[in-house]
Design goal:
This protein has 80 residues and is an all-alpha fold. The protein has two helices and no strands. Helix content is 78%, strand content 0%.
Length: 80
Amino acid sequence: MSERRRLRDGIPAAITGAIFARYMSPVVLAIIEGNVGELGAGATDTATFATGLLGMGAAKVVLAAVERRAEGKGGDDGRG
């Protein structure tokens, strides 16, 4: 894997992770506290970190799917 490819995939993932962490962390915090209970100090930081990882992972999955589709390895899509 080339260095250019890693940067090309990593930068959008980091940006997406930051956006998710900023705007979706209150939702994740509510979900965590609803299932686990009150976490105390640091709960917001934990939710923000988890949400950022979720966003980065989602971006990587989408980029891999787009890249695979562009290479023609996406499988049979039912078109003749």
